[in-house]
Amino acid sequence: MMxxxxxVEKKWQxxxxxxxxxxxxxxxxxxxxxxxxxxxxxxxxxxxxxxEGYTATDIISRFKRLKxxxxxHPIGWDAFGLPAEQYALKTGNHPAPFTLKNIDNFRRQLKxxxxxxxxxxxxNTTDPNFYVWTQWIFKELxxxxxxxxxxxxxxxxxxxxxxxxxxxxxxxxxxxxSERGNFPVIKKPMKQWVLKITKYAEKLLEGLEDLDWPESLxxxxxxxxxxxxxxxxxxxxxxxxxxxxTFTTRLDTIFGVSxxxxxxxxxLISKLISLDQKQEVNExxxxxxxxxxxxxxxxSKNKTGVFLGTYVKHPFTKKQIPIWTSDYVLTxxxxxxxxxxxxxxxxxxxxxxKYDLEIIKVINISDDKLxxxxxxxxxxxxxxxxxxxxxATNKIFEALDKSMSVRKNINFKLRDWIxxxxxxxxxPFPILFDENQNIYLVKELVALPYINNIxxxxxxxxxxxxxxxxxxxxxxxxxxxxxxxxxxxxxGSSWYYLAYILKNADGTYTPLDSQEAKKRxxxxxxxxxxxxxxxxxxxxxxYARFWHRFxxxxxxxxxxxxxxxxxxxxxxxxxxxxxxxxxxGNVINPDEFVESHGADSLRIYEMFxxxxxxxxxxxxxxxxxxxxxxxxxxxxxxxLLDNKIDISLDSSELDSNIxxxxxxxxxxxxxxxxxxxxSKMMVFINYLSSQTRIASKYPLKVFAILLSPFAPHIAEExxxxxxxxxxxxxxxxxxxxxxILSKSPQIGIQINGKxxxxxxxxxxxxxxxxxxxxxxxxNISKWLEGKTIIKKIYxxxxxxxxxxx
Length: 805
Ligand code: ANZ
Prior knowledge:
By secondary structure, the protein is an alpha/beta fold. Strand 26 and strand 27 form a beta hairpin. It is globular and about 105 Å long. The two termini are about 55 Å apart. It binds ligand ANZ.
């Protein structure tokens, strides 16, 4: 018997909406804040990849409500950003109505999938009531010295008269051009806001310790922060009063130095070039400007560089060491200068080979092992010979320390966060400049002015530079101007999870810095579960942690970290096994499947495809199978109810199975092993559909409740057919453990280590009896024909392995 999923799903969605079934409650003593990474409302709408994480959090949210938790499960829109702006530039339309239309479509799609969001909590980063607080946080950062203006290179495209984001640039014949129109793009310095995330490097590292996040993700963050402990050595330039600082993590190799290499942008470079090298070096510097950091740091064998014609003096050997410049030394890391040790560093080795520099071993190792970067006994190191790396480092440090030419130093790979975008569709900065470039914070909201026809400014400023009122503000007769840039898309997403807590049903926000906010944060923080894509491993998740930690330091929030537990869902690949993308034409829109198979089928299908964290390919046949399974559940229920309940029947087996199922489903939901929970329910339905009559309706009610987090529409319908209360009035069923009949354990049988079958082992059997029964099984005996068993390995209640020849 089929049930009509279209009618059933619509009916319950209307019921939930009318009754505000998923309104956030604050009436219990347990809470769960279950969060999705909020979407960018693109024109294409939701795709089936979004559904995977959203279904997972929905299952947990529904489960927690049944367990008597207050649940906060909100959704919102990360709605500023480049695509809407590009659309606006192309069509002459304003991004706001276009964005709102996309949001309406997303919301409709989410509702059609039966997600249990509290829509009163919806936030939108482009809503001035929201971004006034994004601006507030920025002002606090500024007041605490964590937001400053610096001169930074931007991608300037003369042809389009605009600055471009990295994703708008492509490479053609080795030069960078705009994706639109293929115009050349160069680097141009410009004054921009920078957030000093590096001041939080240590705190961001330390905060990772206690988080329940995948280890791989924590490692990505640790590497991104990149703490490196070493020394800065100060070298005297010969025949000059100048000094060069080099950063090294291998002070012990100082006797192996054959050159000092500084970055082409090093601030001392012009003072270190000898007359006859001037032209060659200047040409080299001009060339290096064209390369990106990535090109420079890639471990390409082809290193380039130029000798500057000058020398430093080695502090121990007093030898002359030549000074070079090379673009594999980065300005922005360490001191922007290195002591080059070819024998023990790969990049230095390649460089020395190319330019015929001396290769001096300081660790006792055969020549064919070079470059060698491990530990070992030191040689060629005068009084430090015979020491290993650590001892040599310490002793050399002590010796150099006396001449004050060394200091301990900690470096981070993490860079400060460039926070200005030369764009229109973003949060304006809440500041004014006076004519002397002094900065004033604006107390109230600085609203984004409505521009009818967005155009590039033709300068390195954003489109806001075109508006006279924006650039000429007169206050008390004095002239000011706004900042012509806006904040990056990462701004709103750095604190949106706090905004949900502050959002009120009437559309207002409780002020972030109020006592009421503090109380609510104490109630709801931290986020108990955050699910989203792995692509946010560093930027979003690091920025949000930074802002949160800053707000903690201000005393606004009560936890050091925002997201206690985090899971990255796997990708849903196209039917061809490839990542879904517009260009491959393999993107799947859920709408057609909601229509043809129903939301419940789609939800269960996505959860049943495999473990949540794995990548999986879309497959319509399996979706058909799930739809049939739901039909079967419905038919089984109808059948058993039509056949009348017979209380005289022996119910022990059914009671045992349903109680075991409660345990299994609960355990697997807690572990986010939804595919296993579903397979347990499938086994139960196989059993249930083999029954013609049952002794009580109770197991049916229990099953409907267990199913409800996964397939909520059909579960409501089943409860209604049973004459029971709806889900929001139910609790997770209580397990009657004493009703679970103990079962003989199933053990696997292997032949030569390969799984070949299973056997149910009776308690009374001896080891020999287990083997005797096992070898009689047809699917085992066929492997044994004509062979001899040479070894039997039996691990009680676990496995039997037969080794044959
Ligand atoms: C001498 C040396 C000898 C080094 C040796 C390594 C091995 P991490 O661990 O990533 O911090 N380095 C320092 N500043 C640099 C810069 N601005 N651009 C490129 N390379 C730079 O790496 C620290 C090491 O990277 C430093 O230690 C330095 O090379 C190089 F057997 O100094 B080492």
